[in-house]
Structure formats: C-alpha cells, structure tokens
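In response to the reviewer comment on reproducibility (Comment 2.3), we provide here a single inverse folding case reported in full, input and output, so that an independent group could reproduce the run without further information from us. The structure tokens appear first.
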C-alpha cells in the first residue's frame, strides 16, 4: 500500500498550492530557469512572447510563460542552499506527488533546471563579464549531508580535493556533484567556458573575503585556486550550484548552472556593467533554449 504524506510533511495552502512557493502543479513548466535575485525573474520573463502566470511568496517569485514555442517557468530561489532545499523539494513535489491522494506518483516527471546566476572567479585568466558553465558543483555548505547521497557524488574528485585541502579540522567536508552533460550541451559555444564551481555557505568569510573579521583559514581562495587533478581546477565561487546539482540528481532531474562572472577575486576587480552582463547571459540562455529540443 502506498503511504499518504501527512499534513506536516507535504504542506499545502488553503488553495491547494505548495507551502512556500504558492504554486499549483499546473503552474509549472518542464523547463525551469532558476535565478537568485527575485528582480531577475521579470528580467527573464520580459523576453517571453506571453506570460500566463505571475505568483510569489517571500523571495520565491515565479513567472510561467512561452518563449519561441517553449513553455518555461522562471523562479527566484533567493540566496543560499538553505533556500535551494525548499525550492527543489517543492518543485519536485509539484511534479511528482499527487496533491489529492498525497501519494508519490508511480510515473515520475523529469524536469530540466537551468540556473542563471552571478559568481566570482578565483582564476586571473577568467575575466569579469565572461560566462561560465559549471561542469561540477562543490558544496562547502552542508545541505547534501542531510540526504543519502553517496551514489550521486563524483567520488574521485571529492577524495582528491579533500586530501589536498586537509580542512576537516575546520569542519569543511566538501561534496562534489557533476552537472547534466546532455543539458549543458544546449548552452555550449565559444562565448562560454566550462569551469568547476565552489558553492559557499556565505559571501564574506566563507568566500575568503575580509572586511573587519579575521578569517579562520588564511589564503582560502589561493588554496582553492591551486587545486589540480587530471586537468580539473576550481574556477569560481557562488552560493547555490552544488545544492542544485545534488538535489536535482537525487530527485531524477537534469540541472546545469550558467554563471555571469561579476568579480575576479584574484585581480581584485568587480564588473562595472554587471546588469548588462546578466542581461546578455539571459538572452544567450533563452536563445539556446529556443534552438534546443527542450519541450
Ligand atoms: O546572482 P545570484 O543568482 O543570486 O547568485 C550569486 O549572487 C548572490 C550573492 O551576491 C548569491 O546568491 C550567489 O550565488
Ligand atoms: O564574488 C561573488 C560574486 C557574485 N556572487 C558570489 O557569490 N560571489
């Protein structure tokens, strides 16, 4: 017999929508763009040919519409993998749990997630205003540690990085998860490079930034930048990708993260045209989706 999820586990609002996102199952397209900044949602949907719905609650703003005959949902996650836990569990519930019987559906739907985010490079040769596809996400947060996840990790790279860093005494246990290669192919061109992205649990200390507080690990970014294993090096830092890759893979979905590089931490630069660069990445992403087999 199938288990019915209780009211405290699958939480629905009075109108039948899912607790934090305020969405109904029919509100969701199969292709989903995630962005961190709620204001970036309309920067994406302003390009749509039509918008069928706009909903939101807290930092989770959602627009669903059509672009070049593709139905697309764009949703903001806010900042951090704690929010990724909420967004990805609730989006998967919309697709794969029957809200009437409260049972997990036998036939699962696979969603395609494309993150359009901003990020800081730690390599001097990756300039501000460039674009980067994360071929892996390395979680310096703790989200994946709360789920059984041994089967979806890149064990070889995780072990190599863990022994190189030797930061277990700092309670740092990075998890390493790869992108969905078939989804990433859609976004390949000579305008965008591949890299490996660290997902941090903060923007300042956890990304090696020092304003007034002393860091617990000296030369944090230099140490990350110096990692090398079979042609793999770490390229950039942000705050969501590893959590997205981990939860998407665990739930049977596809995910790829596209980064607009706004900071170069090695050279101390920050983009003077961040809005334009993000706008260009949005147009680049939508054009690639238009020319893809995504439905
Ligand atoms: O621009 P977004 O998508 O929010 O991404 C980056 O920007 C935020 C920090 O400024 C973090 O969320 C980081 O991951
Ligand atoms: O340096 C940066 C720039 C954007 N987003 C981040 O998380 N870090």
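Designed residues, in position order:
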């Amino acid at each position: 017999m199938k288990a019915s999820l209780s009211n405290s586990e699958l939480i629905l609002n009075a109108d039948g929508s899912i607790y934090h996102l305020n969405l109904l199952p029919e509100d969701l397209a199969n292709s989903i763009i995630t962005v961190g900044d709620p204001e970036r949602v309309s920067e994406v949907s302003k390009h749509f040919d039509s918008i069928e719905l706009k909903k939101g609650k807290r930092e989770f703003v959602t627009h669903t519409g059509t672009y070049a005959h593709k139905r697309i949902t764009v949703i903001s996650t806010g900042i951090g993998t704690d929010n990724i836990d909420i967004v990805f569990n609730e989006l998967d519930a919309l697709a794969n749990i029957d809200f009437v019987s409260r049972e997990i559906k036998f036939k699962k739907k696979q969603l395609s997630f494309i993150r359009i985010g901003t990020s800081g490079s730690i390599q001097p040769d990756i300039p501000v205003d460039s674009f980067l596809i994360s071929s892996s996400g390395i979680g310096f947060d703790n989200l994946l540690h709360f789920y059984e996840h041994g089967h979806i990790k890149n064990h070889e790279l995780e072990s190599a990085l863990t022994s190189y860093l030797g930061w277990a005494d700092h309670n740092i246990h990075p998890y390493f998860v790869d992108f969905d290669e078939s989804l990433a192919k859609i976004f390949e061109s000579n305008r965008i490079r591949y890299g490996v992205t660290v997902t941090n649990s903060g923007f300042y200390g956890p990304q090696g930034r020092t304003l007034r507080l002393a860091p617990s690990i000296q030369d944090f970014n230099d140490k990350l930048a110096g990692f090398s294993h079979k042609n793999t090096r770490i390229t950039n830092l942000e705050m969501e990708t590893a959590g997205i890759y981990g939860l998407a893979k665990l739930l049977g979905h596809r995910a790829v993260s596209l980064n607009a590089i706004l900071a170069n931490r090695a050279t101390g630069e920050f983009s003077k045209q961040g809005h334009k660069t993000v706008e260009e990445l949005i147009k680049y992403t939508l054009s690639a989706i238009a020319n893809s087999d995504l439905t």
